Amino acid sequence: MDSIVVTGGAELRGEIPIAGAKNACLTLMPATLLTEEPLTLMNAPRLSDIKTMTLLLQSLGAEVQSLQDNRVIAMSSLGPINTLADYDIVRKMRASNLVLGPLLAREGHATVSLPGGCAIGARPMDIHIAALEAMGAQIELKDGYLHATTPGRLQGAHIPMRFASVGATENTLMAATLAKGTTVIENAAREPEIVDLAACLSKMGAQIEGAGTSRIEIQGVDRLGGATHPVVTDRIELGTYMLAPAICGGEVECIGGRMELVTAFAEKLDLAGISVEETARGLKVKRRNGRVNAIDVKTEPFPGFPTDLQAQMMALMCTADGVSHLEETIFENRFMHAPELLRMGADIEVQGGTAKVTGVERMKGAPVMATDLRASVSLILAGLAAEGETVVNRVYHLDRGYEHVEEKLSAVGAKIERVPGV
Ligand code: EPZ
To answer: φ, ψ for residue 308 (rounded to 5)?
Structure first.
């Protein structure tokens, strides 16, 4: 297993290109199952999660090709379609569950392995199941698999979601495009990835109103066509790299970044003393006056502060002036970066869903362990500012969601390298 070695202390200057969104691409790809015509995605990120989704779709009978240095994903699902999403692939990536809605809509049945818990929480699928059952699906959990069938075509329904689940909104949205009649999703997730999916589905002929609001209305159609669609910019990669000059000084322009993707996050950075300037090509970020203020953060569904940036913000707060409180409301176990940051000399007390961080003058590099995707990158950020060398092990977690993190950071002056595993 590869490791990444970071030597802290360098100020960062230059440009970091921001890739297409992993979490948009992972929901756009299953949409190929909704049509027999070609669906082509541009600006795709080059990540191991995308490769996993590629393998899953190929196992279902879709043709998936990565072209132009993996930046373009050309897909077509002429059929026949296999409707078993096997545990061996699904266990690697929860987003595999996003084939459930499209398979039900296309074939009227699906057998999808439950993804199983992951590092950050149990991650049940009750909201997905309730929504699809409201549309007429019969879903039974047996031997770790969801066995779903629809007697005939899915029916449009009124679906109040108990929580604005991103994945459940995506599964329901895709299923509803081919259902008979009208579907209304209440308390829908409002993430930009949902807006991007709806934009692509609309190009394919779907009739969708309200994506990006908490009420989405879908008029089912008999068939969908193909489309070519550019994947939206990755707001979590963007937020992550905005924190790099914040944590170790300097000035970095995140190319392709757009303020509307990170408004709540940028507001918190502003309170912390970090300036974010919109430029013609992206977002330019630097400390306003050399110091970082401690601030409080509470994660919420979009447009609130994103849970996927909580670990990274905690790294910044470890050397801020004062005491900050980070409250995690989306996942039940998303502070696994805390013990690793403590090894670097941070002062963090976790009490239930809140982490109290008391800023220290400087952290010390140490060997640390990546546990999940966003926790891993928070350790890289901490290493950029720490004294000495930080070795982050198990970086396969990182490669799931960050393209060549060592290349992007060394291009702006960070002392960082990947050490191939034995
Ligand atoms: C998506 O996961 C993202 N993944 C996650 O990003 C992100 O953290 C999450 O949304 C929240 O923004 C992808 O888009 C591939 P949820 P998802 O359904 O859809 C509970 C990353 O680092 N819940 O909104 O799985 C669930 O357990 C990943 O890129 C139910 O209880 O998130 C969690 O506590 C991590 N029942 C909360 O809701 C359900 O049926 C949010 O889950 C569904 C979810």
So the answer is: -75, -5
